Amino acid sequence: FQFQERVFLQSLGLDKEPSPKKFQPVPSILKRIFQDQEAAATAGVSQDLCYVKELGVSGNILRLLPDQGFFLYSESLSQASSRLQKLLSFNLSAIKDEEQLTMAQLGLDLGPNTYYNLGPELELALSLVQGPHVWGQATPKTGKMFALQSVPWPQGVLHFNLLDVAKRNNYPRKNLGLFLEILVKGGRASGVNFQLEDTCARLRRSLHASLLVVTLNPEQCHPPTRKRR
Amino acid sequence: AAIPASKASCKNLCHRHQLFINFRDLGWHKWIIAPKGFMANYCHGDCPFSLTTSLNSSNYAFMQALMHAIDPAVPQAVCIPTKLSPISMLYQDNDDNVILRHYENMVVDECGCG
């Protein structure tokens, strides 16, 4: 039985039976795509399994990669209270060489939407990390900044399209390293220090990053035959 | 005039049987998030000569059944899936990645003699 099972698991694209310690949270978009496909299969509606209509991209394998990075702590206290620095790291090795990347979307969940804590404003900057991080190094060696965005308050989920970054960084498939800086902008009424510090501490607890990757396996998804003219 | 086939023999003829695969029975519930299982079904039953003319069978099954009627040493045609469909699976791998993938030919929709 073990032999047949292993052969079958390999056909599922798995080297061996996974044994996860705990289930990761499944984002609503994956649940919706799964439920749409199940509903179509139950209704006997034929569907194009090589196109993800909910995302508008070709692909037959969707992966949500968890962030395996860590926070960096700046020496100066004033900086620490108003600036958050995190190394984001995503393991792309699960993606087989023959798979074509059609989508790479970074999701930054700043925390639940609430009616209080409406402030302070944040400024987020994302850069590509060049080379492995050296312990003790204050900030990593980074390439050019490829995203800069302000948000009015530390809530909700932000999405960044990283397809070009991931494609450029993708051979051979290894870790995709990003440097995230979040500047908490003061400028409010008194008590601003308390708020900045409180915001950074809260963001350290609530910030959750993940990378949604869609790939197309040409061996399983034959390009649509061109209609004869 | 057609000779009415006995009810009992109809039951033994090639057709689709229900088979629900519960991933817990395989111990796969520890890594498959959804579905909890699925209706896979299977094909089973005899393929006598008469059936190959009615059921959606292939030509070679017809010829094989014909030859089996002449020479029983020639094996009967076999009952196989003639229409299959995929399922989607949401699971977690050893790197804690959550993966949504479709797998072709997981559900038997129709059977025939092949």
Task: Walk me through what this model shows.
The complex is a heterodimer of chains A (229) and B (114). By secondary structure, chain A is of the alpha+beta class. Chain A has helices spanning 2-11, 28-42, 77-82, 163-168, 192-206, and strands at 51-52, 57-58, 61-66, 70-72, 83-91, 100-109, 122-129, 142-151, 157-161, 175-184, 208-216. The longest helix of chain A has 15 residues, at 28-42. Chain A is built from 5 helices and 11 strands. In chain A, the strands form 3 sheets. A 5-stranded antiparallel beta sheet of chain A has the order 4-5-10-7-8. In chain A, strand 1 (51-52) and strand 2 form a beta hairpin. With 114 residues, chain B is of the alpha+beta class. Chain B has helices spanning 7-12, 23-26, 49-54, 59-70, and strands at 15-17, 20-22, 32-34, 37-39, 42-44, 79-92, 98-113. Chain B starts with 6 loop residues before the first helix and ends with a strand. The interface between A and B is medium-sized, with 32 and 29 residues.
